[in-house]
Amino acid sequence: MSDIIQLLPDHVANQIAAGEVVQRPASVVKELLENAIDAGATNIKLLLKDAGKTLIQVIDDGKGMSATDARMCFERHATSKIRKAEDLFNLSTKGFRGEALASIAAIAHVELKTKEENQELGCAIKIEGSKIISQDFVSTGKGTSLAVKNLFYNIPARRNFLKSDTVETRHIVDEFQRVVLAHPNISFLLHHNNNEVYNLRSGNLRQRIVAVFGGKMNEKLVPINEVTDILTIEGFVAKPEFSKRKRGEQFFFVNDRFIKSSYLNHAVVNAFDGLLENGTHPSYFLYLKVPTNTIDINIHPTKTEIKFDNEKALYAMLRATVKHSLGQYNVAPVLDFNRDANLDTPYTYKSNTKVASVPKISVDPNFNPFKEENPPKQTKAVLPFKREKNTESWESLYTSSAAVIENEQEQLFEHKQEEKTQKTFQIQRKYVLSLIKSGVVLINQSLAHQRVLYEEFLESITIKEANSQQLLFPVKISFSSAEIEMIYTIKTELENAGFSFDEFTKASVTIKGIPVSVTESKITIILEELLNDINLEVPDASFSHFDVMAKSFAKTLSIKTGTLLSEKEQEGLVNDLFSCKEPSVSPFGKATFKTLTLNQIDNLFNS
User: Based on the domain organization, do 111 and 87 belong to the same domain?
Assistant: First the structure.
């Protein structure tokens, strides 16, 4: 029998490795940014075209590489971070396994320019599919510029699996935010299709968070700071009233590396116990410093999961620290929350120099409680049945009384008729019960209203021109740069829905008109929910934004569970629901109503 086991060619092995390292353009962005940070850069630029599919370029002012290192960095498992196996458990840098650049070069066109500070000329290398096309000496500035073009050009199947530009850009922005939040001392610039998305100057942690997420974030932050022998915690949590329905603004960093940990997240949520509304999640930016030999960061290819030696101790410390800060800054309720501030002792009376004076009591010795000061006046006795002599208007009095009696009888009769004809009933402010000939229909009021609003919005956006109401005073809303760009990309769809915009800046958007069905107080909520929904994995179709927008509007503006509906409102909801094209399901695929026939009801009692 002939031998069948053989070594894979290098280019095939590199493509297989690329499948583990590079899932999408955001993976390349993460690796290149981390390499720039490890190179000691103080200024880093990220340039993108077509959500990274056409171009991802990172330019830094780090220490650069020699010509030999520039060529070696594209070899598999080539690294400057590790010399022996023990080094894996004492890491203080980002990239360390030496797989990133080799994997990227296997599936893209790569152009590298780099120069060390003490050299007159730098080195330029071009690679296509792991093959070095050219290597030359060039005149370039100190640091490194690495451009990745035409990602997955030689693996079309992988390229076809990429999502829309909107979704891929969102993933890139997520990775970018994780890196820049871990390193507020470094300046970052992000350009997408020649548009500036972020221009972040070096500063402190609070300044970086506000610069990334917008000026509105500043008022939300509660500082966290705790130093122990095994753990240092600093950062911020957002006040409970600013909690969100999504988990977007939750960041854990361990030794300046972003991680995901459901265990530590549970500790933070536990610290907010009793302060959050149901279904909401706290926002936090927490930075943990631990000894490098107490963690293992090599348990996952993306290096976003870490194994701790003493997880239980970290959990307890994190929970206690967050809870302490919430109480220290008067965010959590205190025991004397019913205390009347008027009963507090004034500061001027707290010193010994002030002595309270004895109150004076005055007594009237001549006071007689039995003496009548104002005797009652004499009045004529009034006979109980004696009437006034003027009886001219007695007939009108009788007529008026008869009319009142007749009116009350009519109202009572009408009320009885209404009771007889009532066909809907509300149950627990959640369901509407409607009577039909064959039995009853039980309707979920919130899901039913979502279906009604969804079809109304979809029709107004795609078929007929939506009505818009102009605001007396335009509303200015703060968003992050990435959110502003996303709103701008769907500006046309929003205008079709009835929104009218006045001005776009890097940190805010001014709205001068809104759909008729939207109240001014709901504008921010609607746009935030819409951005969260668009961030989901939406298929790349021209219709998708309209559909997501209609679903988001319907979900935000629909009647919520717990809302009391009048009989007229109940009947209106039932009629509107069964006028829809798809009345049986909500926009999100949940059943809006269930039917119980008389036979089914009878069986409940016969079984």
Answer: yes
